[in-house]
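Homework help thread (please don't just give me the answer)

Our assignment gives two proteins as sequence + structure token strings and asks us to describe the second one. The first is just a warm-up. Here they are:
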Amino acid sequence: MTGAVHGFISRGNAARSAKDWEQAAEHYRAAVSEAPNLAHIWIQLGHMLKQKGDVDQALDAYARAETIDPDGEGAVEQGRVAKLQKKNAVATQHFLRAYRTNNGNIEALTELLHLLERRTKMDRQALASLLKNPEMTTADSAPSSMRDGELTMLDSLLGRVKELNLEEGQVEALRAARERLNERVGDDSAPAAWEGDQIVFDASDLIEYFAHNRLPTGIQRVQIATITDSIRSRPAGSVKVCCFLPDDGSWIEVATAKFIAICGLALISGDRSDPQWQQAYTDLKISISLAPPLKFNAGAFLVNLGTSWWLRDYFLFVREAKRLHGVRYIPFVHDLIPIVTPQYCVKALTQEFIEWALGVFQHADFFLVNSNATKNDLLKVASTLGHHIEPEDVAVIPLDAQFRDPGQPLAPVRLLRDWQLKPDDFVLMVSTIEVRKNHAAAFDAWEALIEKHGARQVPKLVCVGKDGWLNDAIYARLDASSQLRSRVVILSGLSDEELGLLYDSCRFTLYPSHYEGWGLPATESLCYGKVPLLADNSSLPEAGGPFGVYFQSGSLADLIDKAERLVFDRAELQRLEAKIAAEFSPRTWQHVADQIGREIETFLARKPAMLGANDEWSQRIEPVTFGAYYPLGRTPEHRIWKGLGSAEIYRSGTGWYWPEEWGCWTKGDGGELALRFLDQKGPVRGFIKVHAPPGKATKFEVSAPAAGVFVEGSLQPDEFRWIAIDIADIAAPEGFHIRFKTSRPVDLDEVTGGADSRVISLGVGGFYFCHADDLVARANFIEAMTIGGLRQLAFNREPAVF
């Protein structure tokens, strides 16, 4: 590189920093004119041209860079330009080329994953075809099995071990992946299909959690430990792991070996930038995206050990699995805190949780809970909403398990010095930093102890956890007190080994939470032989059992008294620790998994599966009340009452996207409502609110052949319109379906610039039915619609209280 070339590059870099794309491009072009083999400068030139909007010239620059350095960034950048041009098949080719020629380029894999997550059928078939055929044929030659592409890709990589300069560990990982894939494809060596009652663990939320986090918190630990132990301890084929793909409308099997591998990596550290973690996560997601829909065994148990309240449209897919396969759905309810104690939660969380509760009581066959306190909450909330649940249908699975392998090594003690801590000179509080965990009381107690005994006599308070909601006052409290700042340490993102070191080295633990579903830190504390100081509310007495020290919830004086005793009465602390050592015996996760299996068998004995035509879900349609409005949008409530419900259950099949504030979009091919009338005496008049997609005017159809309904018309972009339908004859008592579709589905990716990848058809906001001759009901509807008072006619409105 000559001095002149260096000068061009320096001036180009300066112009780039100033966001002067034109000048930067000129300087970089001058540099490569003098030194045409500088691949990285061709890349920079491409970036500047793309910023200017000259995408064709940018492509030429990236292609030139790839010619010079095939292992560089050129192919990936060409793929990104193709994505901007909405040429997904072309983008896929570029990313695959980058992956194949650059030792499994993680950026190329990530881009492939983003393409797959659009979940359009064309993209998936094209990618599977390209994976199978190194010559990059067209999508028309897509393999009959999407997994064939993965198998061929692994074979190709294994055949190029020397060329790719792979390490031995990478080679072993590829061989293991190919062996696992053979089992999934169905080689002779694969285990025989399980013909008994199958347990399918839904890990949708855990896999989504891994998209943004690595180190698991309490609920994720429950899932990881229970599922992995179930896989290892139960007969082959009797346990599967699955997740659902909302845009595809299908449940997908997750390879158990890949699931176990990524869970193992999650427990090692919180570093999401680790290439090994990125590779494992991306590989898992691509495998899921390419997999065919899962075929449940008839009457299988679909068990969700995690949380599903934040997963959009979850119950639509549970309902479809029940309808098609007679699946029995069993959620693990960890708590109902957003409903029982909404004062400790943001309103949006309470709203989402209420929506989830409405769905869970409509769809669950049985329930698993973690404590008797949570069971009582579950029965109480169900009763408030008007649902009757037999107590025998709720099984308590205490989480009194060994959360960490007792033989697992601890982080080196020198780390305590890095945190400015000394062994046995700090108290540990493990919890998310949020208002419900009651850090405020802990800080008040510590400040009182410091004022009474002096800072040097009071052990430090170490708070370990990630940020939660409503925690501004917690940090403000800490900032306002120099005494607290000198004796309080806040840590986050710790590995299991580091957290184990803190548990092992602390004097005792503190958990003053206002409300819990179980209280995992209390159990963890006991597993390390440490005394937990706990509030005496909710489930905490169950978690701490006879080994915890309890203070009266809400009493700062009692908290200070109990903490002071544990800090300064060494003999009493040693007595309590000796009791834990002698009498506390945590269960293994295999025992927890075995109990879940036994409870499922008990559920089966009480209520055997009803399959095929006898299955209530194969024919089930909820009845519609005449004279009531059924909004299909989100439930906006922040409290519950008897009769509160969600109209989303009238959506039939998977032709729908999730409820929004106004209602629901149907998917590109349209969607259906399933309705049933109980008290029809003659002709019926119905009103349905439809919503046109954005962009261009469109024609629409609303039809119900079984009820003699067919309505068509035109809508302007984004137009809302009420349409009237008439059912002249008595509708079938078992119900009928109404189908909605437009002549012009809209790809929102083009409308939103990539922010929304859905392909939508006609939207539906809600519906209202009444007897055709009921003039009062019709007048009520017209009046309510005119003055904006439809909510007063809603089927789920809150009863008036005078």
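The one we have to describe:
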Amino acid sequence: MFWQQKRSRSKRAMSIILLFLSLCIVSTAGLSYFITTEHLQAEVEQTNMSLLHEVNDKLLLVLKGIDSETMQFLRSRDMRTFMEDEGADQQDTITINNRIADMLLSNDTIFSIDLYSYAKKRWSQTNPFQTPELGPDYQWMNAFERYKGFYQWIGTRKLSLDDSGNIRQNVMTLIRSYPLVHGEGYRKGAVAFNIDERSIYNLIKNAIDPSLGYLFLADAEGIILSHSDKSLIGKQAGGLLWSKDMTQRDEGQFRTKMNGVNRTAFYMKSPYTGWEIISVVSDAALSKPLVQVRNTLFGISILLLLLAGGMSMVLNSWMFRPVNRVLSNVTKQLQAYGQYERKNEHWADDEWSGIEVSLSYVLADSNRMYRQMRETQPVIKWRLVMDALIGARKNPEELRASLEAIGFPLHAKQYIVLAAEFDQKSSIASSQDLHLYSYALCNVAEEMINAEYRGIAIEARDGLVVIVISFHEAEAEANLLRAFAVAEMIKSYVEEQFKQTISIGLGHIAQEIDTLQYSYHDAMSALSYKMILGGNTIISNDDIREPASGEFMRLLGMTDGIVDSLRLTDSEKMKKQTERWFGEMAGSGAAPDMIRQLVVHFMMKAAKAVGEIDPVMLEEAPPHRLFDLLSQHENIHELSDYVIEQLGQFAKQIEERRSNRERNDVVERITAFINAHYMHSDLSLNYLASEFKLSASHVSRIFKEHKERNFIDYLMDIRMRKAKELLAGSDMLIRDVSEAVGYTNVNSFVRIFKRSTGFIPGEYREREQALLRGADGANDTDVAE
């Protein structure tokens, strides 16, 4: 009787203890949940607003950079000549257009640049396919003339890309007044920088995971300026994505419901442009951290309750039953999503057998997790190496430890990056075959490197493999030679076993792994020189020769003769001159990007020459943006062949045009008169009109139609040709030469001569006479022999 009463008291005591522990656990978990939920909710909202601030900072960096370029452009002397100078000639127009072209090439964000002089009623447009008359795309000029401020951001509009207006491009426009600061009514002109909307959207689209939400831009009236769905640009955002509070507050949030899904819209007004940056995030994504906290606390509570129950039962139960229960619960949690059938461990004959079954499940789950880690190893490897190459990770010890954890330990002394790319990738059957070649190259490189050193290789993009070699000794010169030897072995192996060739660029030695990005940049720069040096080669920065100062203008000046041959349709001479020009570029040490820029400038000059013959022929000219097209050619020979082919097409078109054009006796007499009187400083269109009893406009029109160039350019070419003959064949003073060819102002003569030839008159005379003396010496040697 006493024993039963004691046992009953023990049960009641155990029940009270279990109830007390349960209440403590539940109340603690509930209180923690509410406190944590409130804190996480505030953090989630603050994180989304911080995201908008980061997007705004990124936009400000780009847009203010463009604004800075605009103000610098407006302060230039060329801009003052265009906006104010009555005597601005065609050469000044060409100069400012060339400057605009350089700005477009140096900044991919800027789509086009338009100039307008309110004072002189003249304009300049980037797009060569625009008609001479101002169309609806340029109505901003009249509106801005009445604008009180000095600059204005215009929202997205569509800019015509062809004469018909069928092809249009979304642009955002920055307008700046000329001069930068002026009183009311004293505005003389304006410049409009048209920014590609796609470039602006590319800056912000990756700021938020597409699975969680999206970002877009709108103006103060709710008109969408930039969006992933380009069909929505220019339309009203609508009540679901717009709130009246947005006109009263600079930043905030509001709830909305779209397609049956509850969402939260966060907005922020940019103080610089006045545009609204809006992110729309689903409530499910916002509440995801809260759900995770809730589930975690719930799981912890369950575990604590089970633990409390086990503690209460341990006094009256066998020792192994709680152990078995714990192992069973752990197994169920680990294998909740297992793919194989589970047996109940309680079928075992005794407690030890049950424990053995539970442990087997735990070990099976451990093996499965290990296999999953091995399967994801290539992705982790690629991510870690790319982070090091782009400088995303600044802790070298952490990066080395992560690489060592996945099986790629590196030495800690010195590093070097090699960039290996397959030559003639277009000859490989498919992208899948190219990927297999790159995968095999990575394995070969790692095997050869790890034989004596330590390294790692990844495929950075199709056909390009980046190799990192680490050394255990800090001997820069010796390690560089070792890297050369490894590169040579890899190149030879690929040629023998893969029947393919590769080019390898070597970077400089990096002392720390966190400076690996500089070695990677050097390696990629060296690899780009395979366009000049050819494929199947190893290139280091020591093989790259810096071009001389002024080399760009010298090489560009060589194209004048090619353009002259184009006008004369002398295809054979034009081909030889082009081949000689490319040979000069290859031997001058010019970088590949500099060569492509020179070709772009030359093709624009050739297109201008074609347009002078007949504006209709501009439809066959190269596209406005040639740089990306030229980048597709792997070597300089392919680039030369492409240019020669384009010039051949231009020459053929010119010949066809000339064959259909009748000769004009008046033009022939005018031409003969110019050739006989070019030395007269007062020779002009009005002078010719008076001489031949015609109007100046008629003389200009028929001269340009039959001579395929305007009167000023024709007269300038004759005077420059005569000046070259006098400088090379006589010792006349520069002043006398200037007067002999029709220039009374010697400074104007020197400036025009340098623009035409790239040399001042004295330099040209020294070069030509030196060449003549060299030729005479060679002839004397031949006679003596």
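TA reply:
I won't write it for you, but here's a hint about the kind of observation we're looking for: Residues 320 and 351 are 6 Å apart (CA to CA).
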